[in-house]
Amino acid sequence: MQQQNQPFRFMSFKEWVPNGVRFWIYMLFLACFQFSNGMYFTAMSQMEGSLAITPNDVKMMSHAVLIGLTMYFPVAFRLKFRFTNRTCLITAALILIGCNLIVPHIHSAPLLVLLCFIAGFARLFGTFECLSSVLPKVAPTHNYAVFLSFVFFIVLGVIHVFDIASTYIIYFYNWRYVHILAIGLLLVVILCAYMLMHPFRPMPKMPLFGVDWLGMVLWSIFILSLIFAVQYGNQLNWLNSAYIRVALGAAFLALAFSLWRMFNVRHPFLEIDAFKSKNLPNLLIVFLLMGILLTTKTLLQNTFTGAILHFDTLNMASLKWFEFIGMLAGAIFSWFALSQLKLHKKLVTFIGMAFIVLYTVQMYFLMSPDTNIEKLYLPLVCCGFGQVVVFITLTVYAQATAHFRNYFQVICILGFIRTGIASPIGDAIYTRAMSGVLSKHLALLGENIAEIQNNLPMLFTLQDLYGYSVILGVITLIIIAGSRFQKHIGMPIPTFMRMYRVLMKR
After folding, report:
1. Residue in 318, 329, 378 with CA at minimum distance from that of residue 164
2. How far apart are CA 223 and CA 227, in angstroms?
3. How far apart are CA 415 and CA 102, in angstroms?
4. 12-21, 174-183, 200-209, 331-340: which has the minimum mean pLDDT?
5. Which residues partner with 13 through β-bridges?
6. Minimal CA–CA distance to 262: which of 214, 224, 334, 305?
7. What's 279's DSSP letter?
8. CA-to-CA distance for 480 and 290, rounded, in angstroms?
9. What pLDDT score does 485 carry?
């Protein structure tokens, strides 16, 4: 066993690879996996025309990627202890290459959604292998607040940087070039993993016997069917559409079978104890409200900068740099507040959500055709800061209160809201509200053609919706202040040996 006074050494690399560069090789792998998706949201408008799909189809594809990510968590360590480090990285890269090769040539929306789900699963397959390998290096004291601050900044930060890069590629070339770049980066991962690493497994080989793959499929059908119903509700006129009724019926049946398996299968995909974790309903509510509030950034803000201010694609992409700065500040603050100052997690969550509310307040007062791009910098820094702080703090709290046996199942359940249904609900609410409020302002302006041509009805609509968002944000802050967050010092990150023993008990 390696002594604590000796520097940590990555055992998965061949002996001739310098120890000083091994960490950065993992960081390169991590960046490549974060860039690789089945689809790229920055290419939404181009994909709609090339593949003859609707904006809701593209959004559904992006949600499928996130659900694929979420469904990986309950089986994360089972796959890590079954396959070697090099095998995991190469397999994940090969699956993503296949998805990037196929997606640009498929015109079937359901098949595209399936491919994006697989790509999301494979993306976290590779990402988790990188993060779990660098864990002892990043958090040698086994402090989960330190590790999660690093994880969320790297993951969300790299995504923002590559979103900017992909925007430039799409603007000057073609959206398919983004897939070509992703394939090239993944080939670099495969080549480096094959040349620089040898087969290494941190624990004895664990068979995959007992993994509830059918349960994974049923839970995936449940959440994807709900997302479909909410995402396409406005387009298909809700329950008047047979497609929405079928989706809701499929969600109900999938949930019923999943619950039956939970009580009748020895090792279900999600165990009942995961749903009994402390304060889980509170965490779900906070993530839901945060997801709805963050929809203002993607829907209302993009409408404002596009329809009112007439920013081009590159100007809108440049705004992501300030979200990135906010995320960096949020990660540093979370690390210092949780691991150094050891502030109460409810207080840190309240601060993070307060910055998201501050973003909506600032945007409410910036609703003017005379707003220049510099005035949007501070609101976006606040939004990025608050988003990262809430994500880190609530995830640390879940780790501190959930038993390790169920921790990744709890993360999966939180993902149903955090990366699943919250954003479509917010999109549906604001789209519906925008239609109703816009009609009201058009009726009030009547025949004043000059004001209508100047987009004043849309401007007033966006200001009203930001005002309602401020009210929702204040309600969210009140809910957080009134919630009971039991104070925990925080459990240390389990060692691989402890992880292995817990999984063997399953």
Report:
1. 318
2. 6
3. 27
4. 200-209
5. 197
6. 214
7. T
8. 11
9. 66
For residue 453, the tally of other CB atoms under 10 A from its CB is 8
Q: Packing angle between helix 19-35 and helix 85-102, nearest 10 degrees?
A: 30
Give the Cβ contact number of residue 182 at 10 Å: 25
Biggest CA–CA distance in the chain, Å, is 81
Q: Which of 391, 415, 483, 356 is nearest to 145 (CA)?
A: 391
Nearest to 342 by CA among 146, 481, 139: 146
CA distance 252 to 275: 18
b/e map 107-126, b = 16+ CB within 10 Å: eebeebbbbbbbbbbbbbbb
How far is C-alpha 35 from the chain's CA centre? 13
Q: Sort residue 38 into left (φ over 0), alpha (ψ -120 to 50) or beta.
A: alpha
Alpha helices in 375-417 (DSSP H): 377-401, 404-416
Tell me, what amino acid is at 140?
P
pLDDT at 245: 93
Q: What confidence tier does 223 reach under pLDDT thresholds 50, 70, 90?
A: very high
Q: How far apart are CA 187 and CA 100, in angstroms?
A: 12
User: Is 13 in a helix, a strand, or coil?
Assistant: strand
Is residue 155 within 8 A of residue 388, CB to CB? The reply is no
Q: Answer positive or negative: Cα dihedral of 224, 225, 226, 231.
A: positive
pLDDT of 2 reads 44
Q: Which of 54, 56, 51 is nearest to 106 (CA)?
A: 51
Cα separation, 256 vs 219, in Å, equals 10
Beta-bridge partners for 197: 13
DSSP secondary structure letters along 23-85: HHHHHHHHHHHHH--SS-GGGHHHHHHHHT--HHHHHHHHHHHHHHHHHHGGGHHHHHHHS-H
Q: pLDDT tens for residues 359-410?
A: 999 999 988 888 888 889 999 999 999 999 998 888 888 877 777 778 888 8
pTM of the predicted structure, to 2 decimals: 0.88
Q: How many residues does the chain have?
A: 506
- pLDDT digit string, tens, across residues 338-354: 888 888 888 999 999 99
Residue 186: closest CA among 98, 79, 307: 98
> Which residues neighbour 39 within 8 Å (Cβ) at sequence distance 6 or greater?
47, 58, 61, 62, 65, 103, 112, 116, 119
Which residue in this structure is represented by tokens 């995504």? 159
Residue 198 CA from chain centroid, whole number: 31
Tell me the one-letter amino acid at 424. Answer: P
Alpha-carbon distance of 231 to 224, in angstroms, equals 10
Strands in 319-454 per DSSP E: none
End-to-end CA distance of the chain: 26
CA separation for the pair 76, 128 (Å, rounded):
7
Residue type, 392: I
